[in-house]
Design brief:
The complex is a heterodimer of chains A (114) and B (113). With 114 residues, chain A is mainly beta. Chain A has no helices and eleven strands. In chain A, the strands form two sheets. In chain A, strands 2, 4, 5, 6, 9, 10 and 11 form a seven-stranded mixed β-sheet that branches. In chain A, strands 1-3-8-7 form a four-stranded antiparallel β-sheet, with no helix packed on it. Classes of the chains: A mainly beta (114), B mainly beta (113).
């Protein structure tokens, strides 16, 4: 089974801090994704990557950046955390660019910005 | 941008009953997927149905797709308390040579013992 591991289940940070969320997958998947999930808004795509050192903006990239230096690891960076970035963050991976690939999710990081 | 919309937003049933959730979407798709999310956990892929398929089964799950109405339904038969979770539909959106998914807001299912 694919395992997607997010480094923290819960994280509390302060406004203005630089925050790193880490995600690792163990199945040699090409595609990786970062979402945020908020009540009433569902899942929204922040960034995704389909190869090492490649990144594509999702629907809500403002205030975020990403890094993919190795195939198995995809990091989400909050450059200067703000309270409106308090949310549940979900990382996912999928095999390749083929049509109809299911996504495999980590258990999420619940981030609170104070 | 929201593509899929689930209906109802919340559903409460008794154990043993069937649960039906619906998803409507706006643009043409190649495939539609259903996911499940237990409280406080990540999403788990349940089933994928392609645009040229009308119905698909997996255990107690039955998914239908009507591309003319741009809608899909997920039926869980003989529900169990362990089926309590949120269920999301996701449609594919071709993007830059790859494929991303757009998720609906989900249906929260409660199965009472």
């Amino acid at each position: 089974d694919v395992k997607v591991t997010q480094s923290s289940r819960y994280l509390v940070k302060r406004t203005g801090e630089k925050v790193f969320l880490e995600c690792v997958q163990d199945m040699d998947h090409e595609n990786m994704f970062w979402y945020r999930q908020d009540p009433g808004l569902g899942l929204r795509l922040i960034y995704f990557s389909y190869d090492v050192k490649m990144k594509e903006k999702g629907d809500i990239p403002e205030g975020y950046s990403v890094s993919r230096e190795k195939k198995e690891r995809f990091s989400l960076i909050l450059e200067s955390a703000s309270t409106n970035q308090t949310s549940m963050y979900l990382c996912a991976s999928s095999l390749d660019r083929g049509v109809g690939q299911p996504q495999h999710f980590g258990d999420g990081t619940r981030l609170s910005i104070l | 941008s929201q593509q899929g919309e689930e209906d109802p937003q919340a559903l409460s049933i008794q154990e043993g009953e069937n649960a039906t959730m619906n998803c409507s979407y706006k643009t043409s798709i190649n495939n539609l997927q259903w996911y499940r999310q237990n409280s406080g956990r990540g999403l788990v892929h349940l089933i994928l149905i392609r645009s040229n398929e009308r119905e698909k089964h997996s255990g107690r799950l039955r998914v239908t797709l009507d591309t003319s109405k741009k809608s899909s339904s997920l039926l869980i038969t003989a529900s169990r308390a362990a089926d309590t979770a949120s269920y999301f539909c996701a449609t594919d959106v071709p993007e830059g040579g790859s494929e991303k998914l757009v998720f609906g807001k989900g249906t929260k299912l409660t199965v009472n013992p």
